[in-house]
């Protein structure tokens, strides 16, 4: 009878502990179990083996979703249907999200691997002291082209793209700031110009490019270029690096009139439900070996100084993708131009896209 009673008491204690444990497992206090973390990132922008590694090391299940523009990401976060724990916006959007009070200040004490980031990428004007964001990847906007498909022609200028011999040869990135920016730069204007007359001129100039534009695409640009189905692409540098790894005939150039220097950083939206796990994930991605593996996979430029030693030399020493601070100083970073101006850029881009059809 005594034995039965002690078994019963032990059973009750185990059940209570289990119940208490279940509560623990759900409240994100750092215990492995049924915790989840929802990450929202650009398409083709992570080595998914690293997600598995993070899940294995922490017991946190990652739900991973992708977007293809900063604007799409913002809309989804503002709608609030899904609550994201980590997102990866670009600089001007980070500024906009800070102003709109959509981001949570980061706890740097939970991000010891932040020491791995090159100081050059810290404390930038869109997020002083990295209060809300930490570097993930960076790069430029430029032209990838295949001289073999262009009769040996070399390109080094935005204005080269208007050459009538390039009919149906060009892929454009599906991004309002990039395409309108290309029109502005080709006319000698700033990428952050808000003068309506200049913007109209840029749009008119872009309309003249229409016969040369084969398609306006997202990540599909990579396959089209790799397989020699397109000769030229205006794109982000990392996509060019990826393409060039598959097709050695292709080259990448940052046009001489100037171009965009961009930064994609990790943030925690204010609505995040798993703040501690979000910090764990960000810190994991900042680890030198993890960042090196991720960089080799996605081919974008890493701001993680400690990671560079684990990456192939030819990758890190390629000045097209790791340009010197001297060159990057000549490039422009997008500014948050405010809701009205950003909407105007989007409208012009939409008009340009519709005009093509
Ligand atoms: N396929 C991943 C693309 C990520 C590119 N981010 C660049 C943002 C530039 N504003």
From TrEMBL:
Taxonomy, superkingdom: Bacteria
Keyword Transport included in the entry's annotation: yes
Keywords from the named record: Periplasm, Signal, Transport
Gene3D superfamilies: Periplasmic binding protein-like II
Pfam families the UniProt entry points to: SBP_bac_8
Subcellular location per the Swiss-Prot or TrEMBL entry: Periplasm
Claim: Signal is one of the keywords in the record: yes
UniProt name for this protein: ABC transporter substrate-binding protein
Origin species: Tigheibacillus jepli
């Amino acid at each position: 009878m005594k034995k039965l009673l002690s078994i019963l008491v032990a059973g009750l204690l185990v059940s209570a502990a289990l119940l208490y444990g279940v509560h623990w497992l759900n409240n994100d206090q750092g215990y492995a179990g049924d915790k989840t973390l929802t990450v929202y990132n650009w398409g083709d922008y992570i080595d998914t083996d690293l997600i598995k590694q993070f899940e294995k090391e922490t017991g946190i299940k990652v739900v991973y979703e992708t977007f293809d523009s900063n604007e799409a990401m913002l809309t989804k976060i503002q709608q609030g249907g899904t609550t994201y724990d980590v997102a990866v916006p670009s600089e001007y959007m980070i500024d906009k999200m800070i102003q709109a009070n959509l981001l949570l200040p980061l706890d740097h004490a939970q991000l010891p691997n932040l020491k791995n980031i090159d100081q050059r990428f810290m404390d930038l004007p869109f997020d002083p002291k990295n209060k809300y964001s930490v570097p993930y990847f960076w790069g430029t906007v430029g032209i990838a082209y295949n001289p073999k498909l262009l009769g040996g022609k070399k390109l080094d200028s935005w204005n080269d793209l208007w050459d009538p011999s390039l009919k149906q040869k060009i892929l454009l990135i599906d991004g309002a700031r990039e395409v309108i920016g290309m029109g502005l730069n080709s006319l000698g204007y700033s990428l952050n110009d808000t003068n309506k007359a200049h913007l109209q001129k840029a749009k008119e100039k872009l309309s003249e490019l229409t016969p040369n534009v084969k398609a306006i695409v997202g990540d599909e640009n990579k396959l089209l270029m790799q397989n020699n189905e397109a000769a030229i692409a205006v794109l982000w540098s990392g996509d060019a690096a990826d393409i060039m790894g598959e097709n050695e005939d292709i080259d990448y150039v940052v046009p001489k009139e100037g171009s965009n220097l961009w930064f994609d950083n990790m943030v925690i939206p204010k609505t995040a439900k798993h703040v501690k796990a979000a910090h764990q994930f960000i810190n994991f991605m900042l680890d030198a070996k993890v960042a090196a593996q991720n960089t080799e996979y996605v081919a974008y430029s890493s701001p993680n100084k400690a990671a560079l030693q684990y990456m192939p030399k030819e990758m890190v020493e390629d000045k097209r993708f790791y340009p010197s601070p001297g060159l990057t100083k000549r490039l422009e970073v997008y500014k948050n131009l405010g809701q009205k101006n950003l909407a105007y850029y989007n409208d012009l881009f939409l008009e340009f896209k519709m005009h093509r059809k």
